[in-house]
């Protein structure tokens, strides 16, 4: 990616196109997937901290190990939808809503 192209980019989406390719390309899809995991991991970490519980306490509430919660919060493991619901609803007393576009 050339510096001039970066300087001439007019939006964040254009920068992503330059670096990873257009939406639908393999590199861009991989980037988008990693970005989504990062967002989920940050939301999880913040929600746990707001609930004022440790990773160990959350793990015990949902019947898993602290190391799994840690890996989730660090974006090192994929999360199943059922596990995401269990963490937020049982472990943190929160509700999840999804929007599909």
CATH class: Mainly Alpha
Contiguous runs where pLDDT drops below 50 for at least 5 residues: none
Number of helices: 6
Largest sheet: none
Distance between the termini: 30 Å
What keywords describe this structure?
66% helix; mainly alpha; 6 helices; 101 residues; 434 Repressor (Amino-terminal Domain)
Folded structure, characterized:
The chain is mainly alpha-helical and 101 residues long. The chain has one domain (3-91): lambda repressor-like DNA-binding domains (434 Repressor (Amino-terminal Domain)). The protein is built from six helices and no strands. It is elongated, with a radius of gyration of 17 Å. The two termini are 30 Å apart. The mean pLDDT is 89.
Set out the fold topology.
Layout: H1 3-8, H2 12-20, H3 26-50, H4 55-62, H5 66-73, H6 81-91
In short:
By secondary structure, this protein is an all-alpha fold.
């Amino acid at each position: 990616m050339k510096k001039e192209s970066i300087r001439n980019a007019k939006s964040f989406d254009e920068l992503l196109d330059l670096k990873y390719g257009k939406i639908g390309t393999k590199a861009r899809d991989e980037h988008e997937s990693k970005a989504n995991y990062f967002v989920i991991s940050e939301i999880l970490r913040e929600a746990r901290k707001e609930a004022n519980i440790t990773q160990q306490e959350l793990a015990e509430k949902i019947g898993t190990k602290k190391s799994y919660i840690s890996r989730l919060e660090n974006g090192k493991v994929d999360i199943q939808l059922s596990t995401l619901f269990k963490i937020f609803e049982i472990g943190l007393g929160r509700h999840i809503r999804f929007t599909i576009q």
